[in-house]
User: Which sequence fits this backbone?
């Protein structure tokens, strides 16, 4: 633990002695101390409204508490991170301090490190068949030796794609946390695609594009989340193209995420598509049943929440749209357990999470879409998939239908079996066959994930 972490811990304890848990959670739980000198202490908070209220209502108290801990009373400076971008270099802290004091800067908005969200690491990223390759490539990028020039460009750029809420941003946070911890002097920039566009527009209006370019092109590691938002904007794509080339040719690392592969980002220039595809592409699809159970177990453990196997299986069967939704379910159950007390039995859980569970009246339609997609992919007729034929090709297509249905619908094993003219035991066996093949064969795993993605997007 760093000295700042220690001081912040003492400071938070002092605040807790004067305020309720509600006040602490509301205003101070995400406040971060990022710099301390005898003259000033710099905090960051996620939003402008939090910055304004803390500055007005709590600055004096923060200063007094800090004085009792460190023996001096620095000026309190609170900065908002609402612009959505974080620069983890020490240089940006100094530039921010100058900006706050009204000293001359390069005219660009400067953010200070918020360490992203420290809870998002590789250690707590739950790995399954739907994200195994993306996790492995992200870890490989994070583990590179950033004191050496990597001329191989083996993982550069790394392009991670998949639907919303499946863990892409978690991987970006994990990469950033690991690199910044090992190489604290490296210039690491994380930015949303939309924010990159907004910053460029602002720079053009203020005639500070040279400073904008310098800022991004000096990055040792550039991470752009939701890159699809730059598509269709001519000036943004031009600037991104040149920035990409400058960083790439300097052998610096680029990591991008999107909700779809480059070729499917409409209005994205072909030259950018080509560059995005020149490194490693890793897709992340919706978690299957087993991965949903594993995620629920981990989130429940983190929340000190005891859930039975019946409850975990019920939630994994019915909450299927994203990892973010699984996290929301656990948070709600944790709040109920804390506020209302008592054991969480299955009926109580069903009542509590009904808003998270999609009724999926169209599950029957989705099942038909799955069968049609598999039929088309493997050139096997729907009638053959539903028949009693057992030759290798037909049986494998049927197994894939089962696996995808378990991933993409809330249908039970018996219901899936009925749709395929099979019993529940056969469905369980089919699911096991595909899981084993996915673990054994990375090309097959990619093939199945592409099928799931294409069905999700209606392709």
Assistant:
């Amino acid at each position: 633990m760093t000295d700042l972490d220690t001081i912040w811990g003492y400071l938070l304890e002092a605040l807790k002695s004067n305020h309720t848990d509600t006040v602490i959670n509301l205003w101070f739980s995400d406040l971060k101390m990022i710099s301390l000198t005898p003259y000033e202490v710099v905090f960051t908070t996620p939003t402008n409204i939090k910055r304004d209220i803390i500055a007005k209502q709590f600055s004096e108290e923060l200063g007094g508490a800090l004085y009792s801990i460190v023996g001096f009373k620095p000026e309190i400076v609170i900065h908002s991170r609402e612009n959505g971008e974080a620069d983890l270099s020490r240089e940006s802290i100094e530039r921010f301090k100058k900006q706050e004091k009204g000293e001359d800067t390069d005219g660009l908005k400067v953010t200070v490190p918020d360490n992203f969200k420290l809870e998002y690491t590789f250690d707590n990223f739950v790995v399954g068949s739907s994200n195994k390759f993306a996790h492995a490539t992200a870890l490989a990028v994070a583990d590179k030796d950033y004191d050496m020039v990597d001329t191989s460009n083996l993982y550069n750029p790394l392009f991670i794609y998949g639907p919303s809420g499946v863990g892409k941003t978690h991987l970006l946070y994990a990469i950033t946390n690991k690199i910044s911890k090992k190489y604290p002097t490296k210039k690491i920039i994380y930015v949303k695609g939309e924010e990159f566009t907004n910053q460029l527009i602002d720079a053009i209006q203020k005639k500070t594009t040279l400073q904008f370019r310098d800022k991004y092109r000096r990055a040792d590691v550039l991470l752009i989340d939701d890159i699809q938002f730059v598509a269709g904007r001519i000036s943004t794509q031009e600037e991104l193209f040149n920035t990409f080339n400058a960083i790439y040719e300097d052998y610096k690392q680029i990591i991008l995420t999107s909700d779809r592969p480059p070729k499917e980002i409409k209005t994205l220039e072909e030259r950018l598509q080509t560059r995005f595809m020149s490194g490693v592409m890793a897709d992340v699809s919706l978690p299957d049943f087993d991965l949903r159970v594993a995620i629920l177990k981990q989130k429940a453990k983190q929340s000190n929440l005891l859930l039975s196997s019946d409850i975990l299986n019920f939630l994994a069967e019915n909450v299927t749209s994203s990892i973010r939704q699984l996290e929301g379910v656990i948070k709600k159950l944790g709040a109920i357990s804390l506020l209302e007390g008592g054991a969480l039995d299955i009926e109580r859980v069903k009542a509590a999470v009904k808003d998270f569970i999609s009724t999926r009246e169209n599950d029957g339609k989705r099942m038909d879409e799955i069968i049609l997609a598999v039929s088309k992919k493997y050139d096997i007729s729907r009638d053959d998939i539903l028949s009693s034929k057992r030759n290798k090709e037909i049986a494998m297509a049927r197994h894939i239908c089962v696996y995808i249905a378990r991933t993409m619908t809330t249908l039970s094993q018996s219901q899936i079996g009925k749709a395929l003219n099979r019993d529940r035991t056969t469905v369980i066996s089919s699911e096991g066959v595909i899981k084993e093949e996915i673990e054994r064969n990375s090309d097959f795993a990619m093939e199945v994930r592409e099928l799931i993605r294409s069905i999700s997007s209606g392709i």
Remarks:
- Confidence is low (pLDDT under 50) at residues 85-93, 99-116.
- The radius of gyration is 25 Å.
